[in-house]
Structures are given as C-alpha cells and as structure tokens.
Amino acid sequence: MRRLLNTTITILVLAFPVAALANLTGTPTLSSGQILNLDTGTVVASGGDILWNGSTITPQGSATAISATSFGLSGASEFNSLVSAGPTALTGFTSLLTSAPIPASSLIVGGIFAVKTNGGNIAGVLVTAQSGTSITLQFVTFIATVPTITQVLNNYGLIPSGFTNSGIAPGSLFIIKGSLLASATTVSALQSSAAPGLPTTLNGASVKVTVNGTTTVPVFYYAIATQLALVMPSNTPTGSGQVTVTYNGQTSSPFNITVVASAMGFDAYNGTGTGLGVATNAVTGALYSYTNSIPPGTTVVLWGSGLGADSARDTTFVGAAFSIPGLAQIYIGGVAASIGYQGASGYPGVNQVNVTIPANAPTGCNVSLVGVTAGGLPTNFLTLPIGTGVCQDPVYGITGATYNPPPGQTTVNTGFVSLDYLTQPATSGSGTNVNVSATASFESYTGSTFGSSSGSVSLGGCSVIESVSATASTGTTTGLDAGNITVSGAAGSDMLSPLASLFPSVAASEAGIYESVNAMGVSTLPAGFLTTAGGTFTYTGSGGKDVGPFMTQIVFSSPLLTWTNQAADATVTRSAGLPVTWTGGAPGTYVVLSGSASSGSVFGFFTCIAPVSALQFTVPPYVLAILPAGKGFLTVENSTVPQTFTATGLNSGAAYGFVGYEINSTYN
User: What single string gives the DSSP state of each residue in 192-247?
Assistant: First the structure.
C-alpha cells in the first residue's frame, strides 16, 4: 500500500462566521525582495504570504491570491466597502484563487487583491502608494478564533457532499478540512495503531459525531490546523448527523454529514481521488505503474476505506482477515471482475479488495476502475494500467513513458494542437450553431498534476468527475511561450492569438493557450475553413522562448461522424443506461461520449470512450447515477487519427481534430 492517509490540504473556498473573526490591520511598505506575513502583519525574510519583487506580488507557500481589480473593483472607497461587508464579501473571490503572481497592471495605486494566507485566513489588500521598487499596502486580515469546518470527506474517495455516493461509512477513514482545527501546522508522523491504539485527542483537538441522538468520538491518525484525519467509530448509527471540532477550548459550529452503511473510496496514486489508482501485486506487494502495467489475469490488491463497520479495528491494529462485503461488483474497463476478498487490512479504517483483472479486460494506460454497491451506487472512479511492461494506448498515440518523466525530471512539458467542428444549441435557445475553432496549448506540469491523469480513460471505459464550486489541486501548471502559431488549409490561414495577449489578467496556467479568436471572442478563421468535406490542415509554430519550431498536420476524412439517435438522447433515464449510436467517423479512431448535470453547486461530469467501429455504446447506469437529476448536456465527439510532433522544450506533442455534437439533455 503506497499511502495510508490523504494529506492534500488545499482548500479553495472558505467562509467564516463574522462573530468568530478578529481584524488584523496594517500599512506596511515593502522593498523589492521583502515578504509580508498577513497573519501577523510583519515583514519577514522568509515564509510569509506574499513576496514583492519590485514589480509583481507572488503568493508564498500554500497562500493563494486573486486581483479584484480585474473584476472592476478598485480604489479606497470600494476597498472600505469590501472590508465593511466582512469576510463574506472577500470569500466571493476565493474560488478563483491561484498561486500565480499578481501582475504589475493590478498593482497600481488603488489596486485591490484578496489573499488566502498560509494560516487559512482571508485578507483584503489595497495598494496605497508605489515608488520605484517599493510599494505601500493597506491590509485587513480576518483572523479566525473559533475552529471552522469546511468539508468532511472519505480519506481516499474525496467525493464532496451533495452526491449520492458521498456518505461516510462507520469504520472508515475520513478527513475534516477547515481552519484553526489543531495546533500543529504540518504532519510530522501518523499516530501509531499499536496498542493502546489511536488517540481520541491530538494537538489540542477532539471531535464528536452525533447521529440520531447518539454521540461517538473518532480517533486520530493526525491533526493539523487545516485538516484532521480520523476513524469513524463502527458503532456510529447511519443517518443524517453532525460533526463538531473542539480546539483551544472552543467548539466549531456543527457541520452536517451523512453516515451510510458502506461508501468505499479507492486510493489514488497522487491522493486526488481520481486518476491512477493504487494497485499492488497480491503475492509480491509490488506497486503497479505506467511503466509496470498489470497483465490480464493477475490478482491485485486495491486499497482504500469505507466498506463498512469493523469494531475490532477502530483504534488498534488487528491482523486477522475480516470480510466486509460492501461492494457487489467491480468493473475494470467496463468488464465485471472477480472479487476474491474485500474487508479489513489490519490497520484501523484501512480496507483492501483483492480482485483478478479479467482476461478480456481492455488494455491501456488508463483502463477504468470502479466498484458498485448492491444498491447501484459507485465508488470514486480511478484508472489502472493494464498490459505488459510499459502501458500502451496506440489509439491516442501515447505510452506509459508519456506520463512518466525521465529519471530525475520533475517537470513535464507538453504541446497540443486541435481543430474542432462542433454543432451545438444556439445561444438563443432554438436551432443550432456550427462552430469551427483552432486551439493550441503548451504547458509545463510539475508535481502530481500530470501524473494523476485525472479525467483520462482508455478505450472502452468511463470516468467521472464529481466537484463543487472548488476542487482540490495538486502540482502546478504553467503556460509555455511557443511563439507564433499558424493554421492553414485550402480556404486560407490564420495566426492563433495567445490568451495572454487578449486578456492580460489570464492565469499563469492559461498563458500557454492559443485560440483562433479576437478580444471579442469572435472567430478569426477564414470563412469555410473546415466543412463536412474534411481536408488536411497544417499547424506551424515559429518557436518561442520556451518551445522550439514545429510543424504537424490534422487530417479529416469523409464522411464525418453523425450522431444518429440524438433526439432520443435528449431525455436520459439514469437507471436504464444511455444508448448512443452513430455512423461515419475516421476509421481506426474513437468516439468520446460526455455529459454533465448540476444541482446548486454540485456538478457531475462523465466521459466514456468507444471505438468508432462499434457504431454504438451504452453509458452504464452506475456512471449516470453520479449525475444530479435535472438539466445538463450531452456531447458526442470523434477524433481524427492522432499525430505526434516534436519540438525543443517539449517532452511530447500531439495533434487532433474533433467533430462534435452537443445537445441539451434532461436527466431523470
């Protein structure tokens, strides 16, 4: 087992009760190279929250920021109005917080920005003066004095509340996210489950769970200011309940939770709840990866938590096996797999599932994996590399080496160009529009962003993303400068525009994106650039400071794909599955079926991949069960045969064309 607990602690949306806050104010002047700690109001040489380099301000550590100036807010009067409204007004910006530098254009006198500090507090900042390489700021930081809970999640599945499969099971590992939860700021070590067992208090924190009038006390694996990791007692009743955290003599407001008999979450390789799953060989314990894929017929161990109650292991390690039949089925690449054992691993809250990869399972780098309960509710959706040695996805033109950087390399640079032909509902609500667009994306990935491969799925499978208004993020994505990029075809040519040139406040992660639009969002491609007749289109890159010159082509064959049962799919009965049929498409390629629906802040999105030659695919009921009932959309797309290209500064480059149809759908 690669990981016992999830220690990702990013929280992007934070709201504090006004009564639980104390204001810290100041008007410091920073010289180039100085750092301001907004939690203490002091200028420091290291640590702190924001660094001034003489022209821009960059968040430090886990701090994040967003410029309010880019939303039309500026000046002392609007700053005072924001502060008077309290932290609720500032937290309206926090879903857009990033670690990207605040540009100089937003740091002129009167500029306003918001910061989530390393201490988890919210600060509003106004630029009051700037002279040479020094800057004077006026800030207000809302300091929390009472523990605040923002999320309660299964430690591995990380499925947000509001989804049908988001409950917490008795006997499972779960995490509480928030602020001022405990005294420690980092996880130095997990608490030992050797006798006498895990503690009920840690770093000044204690937790109570109350369901149907019964109160239970979870035990800790770790406790830091922004996150607690605990085991839900097996004698906790099922039903709607509440959890509270007490720290430093003060108790948080109750946070609503739902306790269910079983809600398994599988461990993801990068702790994100999606992407590559953790699977080990049942005999040797070896960990499988993109370069060490799993041969069909192999029995593997999947790790996670949430199968159900196990009172013998709530606090202390007990090695004897104990079956907990929380899952009725496991599907690998859409094929039912044989479960040999599911239950206790020995450690409190940690479950294992021994499963044999079906002999007829599809192979690939991201073969879908999901468990389903007897009631039809799925676990989180992960992927496994199935095959021999380095995994292969030839239909996408990638291998396991694409996902694994060379030894010693922690950053991966990728390039992607595409030409899209999309038929979708008109914005007026009646009729359809045909939109042709050319795009290019050149990005550098560090940390687990690239390796997690979240949302990617091999041929024949489905993936699901479940999110609310904010999502956790690991690693960093930064745009790359590829110079001038031109696309040409029989009807003419067009130079794509960098988003950063059209929108100066664009985030660093989007700075490497190029599109065939002007500042008004209107296409700049020549009339008739791509039609149903298809054709050959050439992308040429001049090369920039990060990426060298390149040339590649996208070829559309004829006839283009046609979605034949589009009208019937406008109404989706989730419990019956969703059949999709088509004709045409590029030979030897695949069809992407995707859809989404939302209810309030809860958003569910699925993607399934099928070979174009199949001419049909049925989205399984356990995939559709994730989506909230209500309005949403469906999209059917066909890609051209993928082409690869090389350029200095890139680890990989790919070119695709897409033909797509989008409709509004109702999910019942």
Answer: P-STT---SEETTEEEEEEETTEEE--EEEEEETTEEEEE--TTPPSEEEEEEEEE
